[in-house]
């Protein structure tokens, strides 16, 4: 390229120079020839006047010095030939060319030659003409020598240009080309440890190379930091007991930790994308897919408990949590998820529930013992007295009979706690409340608690009577516990609709006590297992069990309370739906 | 279950109250009562919030030759003890207001020679007794229901003459 430009420029300059020289040379030729013609003309005046051909010839012979003049002739005013000069062989003198113009001189370029006619004037009168013919060998010679010179200059210039460009390439182009090669290598091999070689000279190119290398160093540092952090992440992800995974924004799972493959006994090929479906319980899979797609489309965290198949084909229950990772514009770029095996926890919770149910029953039995022992004491005494005083037998037996009825009533009520049906049956809410309140009547009386109850007779739902009884008993026992002497307890049951949005019909039972209230900080905690405020008597499982029994019935338990001084109260509201939903039978324990 | 145990009488049995529960043949007031202390009819106060129990026990004891009277609460028993100076207090433990143990401690302060016998139908009583023991009081306890023959035997063996 460089060569082409410099060669072209040089050529253009040569052509211009050549053209200029041609024009000048022609002008010079005309001038020179004209001068020679004038000299000859002035020297030929006397030969013309005296018609002296010999002198004219000798004058003409001076032209021998001018190599290019091929012929010169002196002609008379009447255009007759007087004398001639031939450079080569003398021949027939050519006739004098004529011109329409009445000029003293005229010239023209002909084929390979130049002709000039000069009139000779003496004392104002034309006395003859000089006619000179010159070949253009001078011009051709000149052209030839010029051409040679030009060619030499051109070649020399081009050679110089080539050398110069070689030198410049060495210092500019080569380092840039090397730089480009390095960049290509780095981007192809992803090897950020290579460096572009530094040119010898400290010029702009060196700065460029320097900046490029600095950039590489920066990328290399970041790359190794990134690799290290990724390494750390993977080590961490492989060392946790949970199964962990990553998915892209579309929900295709792109990575699983070691534990996942270990637990499921699968390979990365089987698990790629949506392959995880193969380790799901086919019956639960549709619900899982629905929820996962919902999370994906809304970009909301995913949380669900579902079973996953282990390598041996058994299923264990996992709590699965997934969170989206967003870019600076808020678009989800990736999902991170974990599956935590909660099988043992679920089993333990269920065992605890069963234990607490038994324990609650046991506690109830203890208080029932008192209820029974008192009338039993009275009956024992009355029988003794009847034996001793036969005259009063009827009176004593009547009293004993009344006490026995009392015992029968207590055992009947109490048995409700032990009997538990296997499937849900019709439960009369008001009857259950009546029975439970009867059991606690004595406790209420001890504390002089005024009871306000308000419930219709015909409120019925489907459920487990024993469990509903237990729910009421727990809430009433808590209320009595919380109440001071002469406090009041209100129990109300009304037909109601669920507040969870689907307006399910059911019954809402509210227990309101004027006890000391529950501080906001404790309101959530009281539903946790083992949380108790009465360390010496409580196990802290009562409300937790109550809550799970209510949830088993697909109902809800709501707590409101006030700790405002002088106006303290607590209200527990239980909502139980009329008809439990179809999956009612699904126990909270995983079916393994 | 009936609510108010304090004022309810038992049909077929004489209605007792603080004013009329004193048996006719004993003068519980003034010098006469002092003279009778340790006499042939040992005085017993029976305390139970269940009136039927208190009154049947009173009747059983009176048949056996004791001078027994009933009280329906710890507080009324203490009031009665101030006047009567009983040899024995027979009391239920779990009662509204003062429980049997608290009452027993108070009565021992008033009448140091008084024996306190408790009867209870509840397991929770054990804790209450343990607490009393730590305060230096030892009370005998009987489990409800008690056979009247056994009760009479226990009462007899608790009397100072034995």
Question: Could you describe the 3D structure shown?
Answer:
- Chain A is α+β, with helices and mostly antiparallel strands and 592 residues long.
- Chain A has three domains: 2-135, PAS domain (Beta-Lactamase), CATH 3.30.450; 240-341, Beta-Lactamase (2-Layer Sandwich), CATH 3.30.450; 348-585, Heat Shock Protein 90.
- Chain A has 14 helices and 17 strands.
- Chain A has helices at 2-43, 45-49, 53-61, 137-189, 204-239, 258-264, 268-271, 285-298, 343-388, 393-418, 429-446, 465-482, 520-523, 542-552, and strands at 69-76, 81-86, 105-109, 113-122, 125-135, 243-248, 253-256, 302-309, 315-326, 332-341, 425-428, 450-455, 460-463, 488-497, 505-513, 556-562, 569-577.
- In chain A, strands 2-1-5-4-3 form a five-stranded antiparallel beta sheet. A five-stranded antiparallel beta sheet of chain A has the order 7-6-10-9-8. Chain A has a five-stranded mixed beta sheet with strand order 12-14-15-17-16.
- In chain A, a hairpin with a 7-residue loop joins strand 14 (488-497) and strand 15.
- In chain A, helix 9 (343-388) packs antiparallel against helix 10 (393-418).
- The longest helix of chain A is centred in the N-terminal third of the chain and has 53 residues, at 137-189.
- By secondary structure, chain B is of the alpha/beta class.
- Chain B has one domain (30-158): Rossmann fold (3-Layer(aba) Sandwich).
- Chain B is built from six helices and five strands.
- Chain B has helices at residues 30-36, 51-63, 74-84, 100-110, 125-134, 148-158, and strands at 43-47, 67-71, 88-92, 115-120, 140-143.
- A five-stranded parallel beta sheet of chain B has the order 2-1-3-4-5, with helices on both faces.
- In chain B, strand 3 (88-92), helix 4 and strand 4 (115-120) form a beta-alpha-beta unit.
- In chain B, helix 3 (74-84) packs parallel to helix 4.
- The longest helix of chain B has 13 residues, at 51-63.
- Classes of the chains: A alpha+beta (592), B alpha/beta (162).
């Amino acid at each position: 390229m460089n060569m082409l430009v410099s060669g072209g420029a040089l050529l253009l300059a040569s052509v211009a120079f050549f053209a200029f020289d041609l024009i000048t040379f022609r002008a010079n030729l005309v001038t020179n020839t004209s001068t020679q013609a004038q000299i000859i003309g002035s020297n030929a005046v006397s030969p013309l006047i005296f018609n002296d051909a010999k002198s004219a010839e000798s004058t003409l012979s001076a032209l021998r010095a001018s190599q290019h003049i091929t012929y010169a002739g002196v002609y008379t005013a009447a255009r007759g030939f007087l004398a001639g000069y031939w450079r080569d062989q003398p021949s027939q003198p050519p006739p004098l060319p004529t011109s329409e113009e009445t000029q003293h001189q005229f010239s023209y370029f002909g084929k390979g030659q130049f002709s000039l006619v000069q009139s000779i004037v003496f004392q104002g009168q034309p006395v003859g003409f000089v006619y000179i013919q010159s070949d253009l060998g001078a011009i051709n010679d000149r052209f030839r020598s010029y051409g040679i010179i030009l060619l030499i200059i051109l070649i020399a210039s081009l050679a110089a240009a080539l050398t110069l460009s070689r030198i410049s390439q060495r210092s500019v182009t080569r380092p840039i080309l090397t730089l480009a090669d390095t960049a290509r290598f780095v981007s192809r091999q992803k090897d950020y440890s290579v460096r572009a070689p530094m040119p010898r000279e400290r010029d702009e190119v060196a700065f460029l190379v320097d900046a490029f290398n600095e950039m590489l160093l920066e990328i290399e540092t970041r790359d190794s930091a990134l690799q290290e952090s990724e390494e750390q992440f993977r080590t961490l992800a492989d060392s946790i007991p949970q199964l962990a995974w990553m998915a892209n924004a579309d929900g295709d799972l792109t990575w699983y930790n070691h534990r996942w493959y270990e637990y499921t006994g699968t390979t990365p090929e089987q698990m790629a994308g949506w392959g995880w479906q193969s380790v799901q319980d086919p019956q639960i899979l549709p619900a899982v897919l629905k929820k996962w797609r919902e999370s994906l489309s809304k970009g909301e965290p995913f949380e669900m408990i579902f079973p996953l198949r282990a390598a041996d084909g058994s299923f264990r229950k996992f709590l699965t949590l997934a969170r989206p990772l967003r870019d600076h514009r808020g678009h989800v770029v990736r999902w991170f998820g974990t599956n935590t095996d909660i099988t043992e926890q679920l089993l333990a919770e269920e065992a605890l529930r069963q234990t607490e149910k038994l324990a609650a029953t046991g506690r109830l039995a203890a208080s029932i013992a008192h209820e029974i022992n008192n009338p039993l004491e009275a009956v024992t005494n009355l029988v003794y007295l009847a034996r001793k005083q036969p005259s009063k037998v009827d009176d004593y037996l009547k009293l004993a009979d009344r006490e026995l009825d009392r015992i029968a009533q207590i055992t009947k009520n109490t048995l409700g706690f032990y009997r538990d049906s296997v499937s849900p049956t019709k439960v009369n809410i008001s009857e259950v409340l009546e029975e439970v309140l009867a059991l606690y009547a004595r406790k209420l009386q001890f504390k002089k608690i005024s009871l306000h109850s308000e419930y219709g007779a015909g409120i019925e739902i489907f459920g487990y009577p024993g469990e509903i009884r237990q729910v009421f008993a727990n809430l009433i026992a808590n209320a009595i516990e919380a109440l001071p002497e002469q406090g009041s307890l209100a129990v109300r049951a009304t037909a109601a609709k669920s507040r969870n949005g689907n307006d399910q019909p059911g019954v809402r039972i509210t227990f309101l006590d004027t006890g000391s209230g529950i501080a906001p900080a404790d309101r959530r905690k009281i539903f946790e297992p083992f949380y108790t405020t009465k360390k010496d008597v409580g196990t802290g499982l009562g409300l937790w069990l109550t809550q799970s029994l209510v949830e088993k019935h697909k109902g809800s338990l709501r707590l409101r309370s006030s700790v405002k001084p002088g106006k303290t109260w607590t209200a527990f509201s239980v909502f139980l739906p009329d008809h439990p939903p179809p999956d009612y039978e699904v126990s909270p324990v995983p079916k393994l | 279950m009936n609510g108010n145990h304090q004022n309810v009488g038992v049909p077929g049995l004489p209605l007792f109250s603080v004013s009329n529960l004193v048996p006719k043949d004993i003068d519980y007031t003034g010098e006469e009562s002092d003279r009778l202390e340790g006499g042939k009819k040992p005085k017993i106060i029976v305390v139970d919030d269940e009136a039927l129990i208190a009154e049947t026990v009173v009747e059983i004891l009176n048949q056996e030759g004791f001078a027994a009277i009933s009280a329906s609460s710890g507080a009324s028993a203490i009031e009665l003890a101030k006047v009567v100076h009983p040899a024995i207090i027979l009391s239920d433990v779990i009662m509204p207001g003062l429980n049997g143990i608290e009452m027993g401690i108070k009565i021992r302060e008033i009448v140091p020679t008084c024996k306190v016998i408790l009867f209870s139908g509840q397991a929770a009583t054990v804790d209450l007794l343990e607490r009393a023991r730590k305060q230096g009081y030892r009370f005998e306890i009987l489990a409800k229901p008690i056979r009247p023959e056994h009760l009479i035997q226990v009462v007899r063996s608790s009397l100072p003459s034995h």
